[in-house]
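Q: For a teaching session next week I want to show students how multiple molecules come together into a single three-dimensional assembly. I've collected the sequence lines for a complex. Could you give me the predicted structure tokens for the whole thing so I can convert them for display?
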Amino acid sequence: MPHLGGILLALAVSQWRFVDALPRPQIGDYGEKSGPVGGVNPPTQITTTTSGNLRGNSSLLGGNAPLPNPNTADSAIVPNSQYVKGQNADAKLGLYLDFNSANPPQPIRGGRGATDSGPRTFDYEKLNPDLYAPPGTDAGDMPNLMWPMGLSHNRAGTGNNAGWARQENTAVLPAAVAMAGVDMRLSPNAYRELHWHTASEWGLVLKGCVRLAAVDEEGRSFVDDVCSGDVWFFPSGIPHSIQALEQGAEFLLVFDQGDFTEEGTFLVTELFLRNPISVLSKDLHAPVDAFNNLPKDQLYIFNGSPAPKNISEQNITSSAGSIHGNGSYTYHWSQQEPYSVPGGSVKIIDPITFPVAKKFSAALVTVQPGALREIHWHPTSDEWLFFLQGSGRVTVYGAPASSRTFDFTAGGVGYVPAGCEHYIENTGEEDLIFLEMLQADRFTDVSVAQWLALTPRQVVKDHLGLSDEVLDNLPKEKQRIVTGNPDLTALAEGGSAF
Ligand SMILES: *[C@@H]1O[C@H](CO)[C@@H](O)[C@H](O)[C@H]1NC(C)=O
Ligand SMILES: *[C@@H]1O[C@H](CO)[C@@H](O)[C@H](O)[C@H]1NC(C)=O
Ligand SMILES: *[C@@H]1O[C@H](CO)[C@@H](O)[C@H](O)[C@H]1NC(C)=O
Ligand SMILES: *[C@@H]1O[C@H](CO)[C@@H](O)[C@H](O)[C@H]1NC(C)=O
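A: Of course. Below is the structure for the complete assembly, covering every listed component.
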């Protein structure tokens, strides 16, 4: 075995060009405290022999052991702590704290909290300032409602660099019971193997193009090409394939089962591997040796031959014909112009225009810097959120008295249970783009501003003590998005939030 390392290294060097020769992450790269911690003082001595005991003994029990000296013990005092703009403002203002300029940030807001002496990894805290130093209005035990795909296990395809998939489901986000999501990558011409599942699948192409093929229970067939911004839908049980065209593809899948898993789909290869060959022979009227070249294992995601440019060559129909019109499994959503409002834009797709996708209602929302997807809730459905670009935060209020604020960046999944009030605020310097997905016949929400504007004024005044001036300003029409000050800490210096 002595040469194995050398052989592996030679193989690795022959396949990859190393950018740098860093052996492994260095202590301090992620900002961790590198001094003593938990009674260990790194770096520890490198030793070549074994010594010491795994356990202490009863002389160390309290009362037996000598008292420690607090003056010489490792101190928990954090010297020279830095604070960012807005950090000293009233915690109930809940200003967005940009921790990127603080090295390291401290979990303090308006006099609440205390410094952090570690252990810690600064990057998590900089990405999640509203978890680390929550707004003073956060309360109670709202469950976790956020899962970054960057923390998902990534399942590689079986072919050479063919692709991968990573998922969010109840295994990682237990509150997300009604929907699950998959982020899938296919290299040029690669396939997601022919398969079906018991969940219904709604897909949004994020990059590139794919060719889809499916057959329904009436024997009607379907082929179509979709590109970035287009949508498909396969009802539960409908067998389908997905092949990337020559630029490859990445797409988002949303399923109507929170516990859906990519590991749990029915696969055409497994179907052939799991049936007696005599029965396959009888069923397909093919000699037994016709099955000699079956794959030995499932293909899952694998490389394929290029799809013919002319899609009509792949259009095979029975007497039942093809799936088209209102039964179509695709919707070329990229060609739909968005509805624009001050502060951003919204595009809706739901069964009103894409009838096959029963119960799948979606909005693709763009929110400009400083603007807000207004405070609202969805009356009947849980909401599955996916962030495509930028950074934003969401506070979710749940009955009767709990709320929690989460920070999202591109690739993040969010979840809001039905009826829970929330907003989505752009906290970055670029447009925030996200998908809102519901299980509903049409995309609907209740706007708080509109609700109050259309409720008798005396009723609202008796409840909230708002002035006539504020009530005069409330919009009777639904805003969906409202503009705001891109300086998110302006209030701390006498400025305005809007
Ligand atoms: C028990 O532990 C103390 C402190 O580590 C050590 O000095 C002592 O020799 C130990 N006693 C026995 C009986 O091993
Ligand atoms: C496939 O053929 C059917 C007629 O059998 C036609 O209605 C349909 O438009 C064709 N689809 C494509 C993608 O060419
Ligand atoms: C595409 O293929 C169909 C069916 O094979 C054929 O009828 C048609 O002429 C082809 N179109 C082009 C542009 O080659
Ligand atoms: C789809 O259904 C709607 C509503 O029933 C109808 O107005 C429309 O013409 C149909 N479209 C197609 C392409 O069949």
